[in-house]
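In response to a reviewer's request, we include the raw inputs and outputs for one of the modeled complexes. The two entities were modeled together in a single run.
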Amino acid sequence: MTELRDIRIEVPVLARVEGEGALELEARNGKIEHLRLRIFEPPRYFEKFLEGRSYQAVLDIVARICGICPVAYQMSAVQAIEQAFGVTPSAWVTDQRRLMYCGEWLQSHALHIHLLALPDFLGFDNGIAMAAKYPEEVKRGLRLQRLGNDIIALFGGRSVHPIGVRPGGFHHNLNPEQLARCLEGLRTALPDARALVGWTAGLSLPDDQQDFTNVALRHASEYAMYSGRVISDQGHDLAVDEYERHFRELHEAHSTALYSLLDGRPYLVGPLARLNLNHDQLSPAAQQALAETGWQLPSRNMFHSIIARAVETYEVVLEAIRLLENHQPTDTPYVVCEPRAGEGFGATEAPRGLLWHHYRFSEDGKVLHARIVPPTAQNQARMEEDLRQSLEAFGLHHEDDAIRLRGETVIRNYDPCISCATHFLTLKMRR
Amino acid sequence: MSAWSPEHPDALDQLNQRPQPRPKVAVHKFSSCDGCQLAFINAGEALITLSQLVDIVHFAEAGPLDAEAEVDIAFVEGSISTPHEKERIEQVRRQSRFLVSIGACATSGGLQALRNFNSHSAEQWTQAVYAQPAYIDSLETATPVAEHVKVDLELWGCPVNARQVFAAIRALLFGVMPLIDKDKLCVECKRRGNVCVLVAKGEPCMGPVTHLGCGALCPAFGRDCYACFGPAENPNTHALARRFVGLGLLPEEIAHRFHFINSHTPAFRSAGLEWAE
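The model returned the following structure tokens for the whole complex.
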């Protein structure tokens, strides 16, 4: 006989994710009957603040949605604005934006791998505690993160809420001394970044095969980051403005984040989805590093996300070096943007997945309507589905603490940024 | 000029009379983008050094969790925008000897304080954004920490940077109140040798009324300051608004200059309301 007992575990805050969340779980006879990932991040109404504001303020506003990925918000928004006003920035601008975006991927991935995810796999509560035993690994993470921040600051003055991007291009040229220091730092870090791929592939990660739909941008000629078409391994191949035909957001009672579904079903965005769909477009050096690990793609194991982040870390270091080496100063870092009535769409790959924006503007360039679909909202339904499967596979006979830790580890695979969609994991367990 | 601001010297005494010389530190998050906590997390090896100088007992984003621990110094990020946050901030105050609010959200309510004087209520906005508004629990306003509990030190900025945060901790470790320069951005901008974007380019720069500390980034990039560090001491908002009229800004545009990242500060709130239609 299974003894039925009510157990309530309070973990005041879900650590090492960005935002607040809680997990409710009811299990009976080793089966989960009820599972909910609750997101509590207080609503901040960004889409409403945007209404009535000039297009010139949009990039400064949307940066504030997320301190971890402000560049992503600016990159999706700026392309929507430019589309609405019929402006095409120069190839120089597109290259520099890609370079700036490399900086954000680098800082975000380095932080997530080393300080947020790694403690789970090395058996520590947190990165600060881990630093005493693994000082070199933690310092490597901090160095790579620093380099990423430096790249953002090249263009933005600072890495959090950078100020350099404007509709039509950038406010200014790069400082040549800073540029040279950045390039030197990246070249020095290249062996670290390469070694990270093999090192993460060598970690002892749980094996949990699941079935899910991958969604990412795909670009004609490069590993998609700044632009591309929305594709899936279910045959979707959509222009950015066709997104709403297949993707719908639902609002569930237990969460301030909206749930996004693809044709009514959960789907995955983020590093593993991107690699599963686009690994053929990695640079030769990254493909080589990937091949040496023997890791087979596509992968159906979400715990491989840490390796996917490492591969992308190496890829963006390579790409940033390439772009910096080819960098030429210009007399025209921007083209003038004249407002007109219209609408625009923008989609880019934030470090944690697809970030989609849609705006409508009045004739004088004021925002009439804004809609933003962040990556964490897109992953939320998939996270619940994953938790249900992976906790049953893990075994509900384990102690509550072990179940809670496994649940948190599963959630951290998605690098949820709950500010933009939740750190408050209260596990309520009934069994 | 620069103000020495012992807002609450008794709190400093409290801090200096702590039983253990090695202080316990907590970083708490309220309604925010998480960007100000990055002043710690992005500090690189300085963060490791800090973890050797103090006990970081609660810092959810970095990992350590003990939200209810009694601490010597508590850093608070974010504004107060839900009923639960109102209760939490009082709890944080009770368990902390010295409380520092960091960033625009905590010091002024931040960008989300724009809801405070919207003609629509937060409830209407909830109905517009969320399909199931009944599930959303939100206060009508987003307000700074100091409107709810006593704050011992405020560090302004959207976001605050590592220099501000680490300079404050260093001073507190030495047992003295941190020196906060509350002068105008123009002072910092001149020291950097920037060309004035207001005078030379006619850009509606907020520098003359804005708290320095960011490094005068926007003017250095050739663009106008948008006051993400909040109002300076004694800001002459009226004169600057008149200047903006001279530059051809419409009243609503002037209101928007003040009603932006730090709209809930008394100086910017009233300046913006003068021009709002």
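As requested, we also summarize the result in words. Confidence is low (pLDDT under 50) at residues 1-13, 419-427 of chain A. Chain A touches chain B through 70 residues (CB under 8 Å).
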